[in-house]
Structures are given as C-alpha cells and as structure tokens.
Amino acid sequence: MGSPLRVLSLGAGVQSTTLLLLIAHGELPMIDAAIFADTGWEPEAVYRHLERLEHEIAEPAGIPLYRVSNADIRRDALDPQTRFAQMPLYVLGPDGSHGMLRRQCTDLYKITPIRRKVRELLGYPDTRRVPAGVYAEQLVGISLDESWRASRADYDVSYSRSRFPLLFLTGGTGRTARGWTRTDCQRYLSAHGYADTPRSSCRGCPYHSNAFWRTMRDDRPREWADAVEFDHLIRNGGARANANGHLLRGLAYLHRSRVPLDQAPIDRRTRTELRDAQGELFDALADQDNERGCSPFACRGDDHDSAAA
Ligand code: SF4
User: Cross-referenced SUPFAM superfamilies, in alphabetical order (predicted)?
Assistant: First the structure.
C-alpha cells in the first residue's frame, strides 16, 4: 500500500493559509491537493484571497487547489423548495427566553463537499466502501493557542485522518517554542506579503463579533446591506421549515442581542476586544484576531465572545 494522499483543508483563513505557504516554501512536506469548501456566501475579500493563493502560491508550487461546494447557504435558507442546514441563529422565544438553533451548516456546506472530494481523489467517488488502509491525511490549520481544538476536530472517518502540523513546528513563540500560535502565523504571513489574510466565514454568520460587523458596516456597505436583508428575511427561521409548517417558536436573529442587525449594538466593544486592545503585539491585526473563522474541521465560531451583546 502506497503512502497516503495528503490534502490540505484550506479554509483560507490565517492558519490554513500559513500551512499552504509553509508547504509551498518546502518547510513542510508536499501535499497532493488543497481543498476549499465554498458556502457561496463568503466575503468578497475571501474570494480575492483565494485567487491570490491559487495563482501566487498553489500553481507555482504544483499544488492543485479545488473549490468544492454543496450549495449556496444564503439561497437555501430563503428557498422553500430547498433543504437548508440550519445556521446557529439566535432565537428570542415568545416568553422572552433566549435560545440558539443547533448548527448544522458546517457539516453540510463544508465537511460534506470536502469529504466527497477526498473520496474522489482516493478513487472512490461514490458510496462504494473505501478499502481498509486507503486513506488521506487531512492537514488542518489549528494553532498552539487553540490546540484543544485538535481533540475536538474529531471528524475522522476511516478514509480521512486529521493532522495538525502547526502544533509540531519548532520556532514558535509558545512557552516551549514548539508549535506555532496564531501570532506566529500572522508574523509569517506578514513576512511573505499576506498580512491582509481575511477571515473566512459566511457573510451572515451569527458567530461574527461586533468588531466584524462594524468593519462590514463601515468598509463593505454592500455586504452589510446583504447581511441586514438576510437577517430580516430569516426572522421566522428557514423558508423550507416554514413552508412545511414547522414554525419556529420565537424569532430568529443574526446578532446575539436578538434585535435586527441594523439596530444591534455592534458599536459596543466586547471583552475580547478590550483585552486585545491592552497591548497585543500585533495591534494592527487585533481586530482580525477577534475573528475566529469557520474552519471546516475546527469551527471557531463557538468561542465567540460571550460578553456584552
Ligand atoms: S461560517 Fe457560520 S454560517 Fe457559515 S457554515 Fe460556518 S458556522 Fe455556518
């Protein structure tokens, strides 16, 4: 049996971009492919970044970069004919109680299409059983400061096994200088002309922090208007559930304050922002640092700042 296929789960955020650069620069062993799962609703900056990665890094290094997609998450949410895998929307119950819908979107829109591509690359594109011992090593960008995610990134199946190269690199700034932190990644990206690596996540992800919403409102008015409109349209949950008579008990919102996005208190600074403002080494990147993108195999959304809605 030959050596396993090696693929990079390219979320196109800070950590996975770092991995791609390290591989292309020969600082990590070569891979057979990089796979980006497109939910169809990423910020324009992410698509631009991906283009750059493909033409400046992947192609010259001979790494095929595949864009895979299951569907368009925004369209699915609003189309009564289409199955919609729930986003983690905030819910205000009829009695004023607070709840949140269970997140199903990462699986359907990110993990499923990546798995499908992995099977195809292994030579088993359909539902045929992949023989024992045939598998891909899937490189996932988890940095030292979030190493606990490696145990939670428990998405292995027999034909796809996760690997976390950033946790084992030397020369980082962690206590033992083994393993790279997010800051190490940012330094590396800055040194190679990728300081502006954006956060990868759906435009209207409910996990966005206040800082992310503010930047969108102030710098990307078209995306902001799009998110505000979407927030308005999902007030009663997904269109298909409604069409099928499964009415949401309560009202759904994108912002954790559970008020319409264009009225939400996004100018309020969260605890995370205040902490980061107290002398982070990378002040210029502090705002980005508040953002935890939706990596397919290590969704960072659930550690959103619980402070101050
Ligand atoms: S970014 Fe948010 S909405 Fe999009 S797939 Fe991830 S968790 Fe779901």
Answer: Adenine nucleotide alpha hydrolases-like (SSF52402)
